[in-house]
Amino acid sequence: MTHNKEGVHGGNVDWFARKYGFDPREVLDFSSNINPLPLPEKLKNELTDNFGIFGRYPDREYYDLRKALSEYTGCSPDRIMVGNGATELLYLAVKALRPGKTLIPAPSFGDYERAFYGTGLQMDFYRIKEELDFRLDMESFLRELSAGYNMTILCNPNNPTGYLIPKEELVRILDEARKLNIVVLLDETFIEFAPDPDAASVIEEIYAYDNVILLRALTKFFGVPGLRLGYCLGHPALLDKMLSFKEPWTVNAAANILGPLLLRDKNYIENSRKWIMEERRHMYSRLNRIDGLKVYESYSSFFLVKLLKEGWNVDLLQKILAADYIMIRDASSFNYLNKRFFRLAVKDRVSNEKVLECLEYYI
What is the rounded distance in angstroms from the CA atom of residue 97 to the CA atom of residue 267? Predict the structure, then answer.
């Protein structure tokens, strides 16, 4: 059995450090697209002050957490379910709803495909074309979707391309899916990184649809992958189906108490949005000047980049950048991408400058 297969996910710092003989703390990890801003100090204080929570079960209904999520999203608590990261809820939706035939635009997040392993359910890919700069061809996609599918899974902004489906096009997909009785699992894990998250999200439209599950997490924007806290929004009938398959207490006591604190921290949210706008604009401008690279415009916390020079591939680039303790994400594990593609996270200015200078020098 093979564990921690390299390339399946970003953020495998320990593997990288072992491979090159580094201390993991020395690694500049550009493979994992997590908010790099320091977590609020009050999280540590909250845990210290409430250390006794680990001696008892968390509230099985997660009332306070769902109330905080309701305040944050504007969605009523009866339309909110929490889980052990967005991943648990993704797998749970497939298991509970058992769609006979599912269509997934790709390249996209690899766990969508893995959620179907062993289920016996049919899952097909719709290829997002490189010649369209990985923008979704709406007419072509809708034609394909009408060919007897029961579910589609969309990522918006998409991972790894960074493309954001415009709201009007997204609503069109939801409308067509409703007519065809298709469930839409819409992953908005990276929506807070969009230039205008409120305008980009369909969260305000969620009440109009009984066929949509909106998937989110605190992992990326709030920078707490180790907390394992995700949530989904949807019609109570869909959530009840998922709840009937859900194990109890999958959200731990720490996530239950720290989640509301993060969601209500307006300063952290505003500072994070200001940071991503500035750094994303800065990195895109600099990457665009490097002749040997093609960078795709992104509305998230990372860029998809293609190596253009003959003889270059990601394996070579990874080896070169490792000399500077820099780790990037080999994007060839995403469907329809090859060894010329890599994903580069947006980090703090000092770290961003280091990787930009290395790319400018070597390529």
Answer: 39
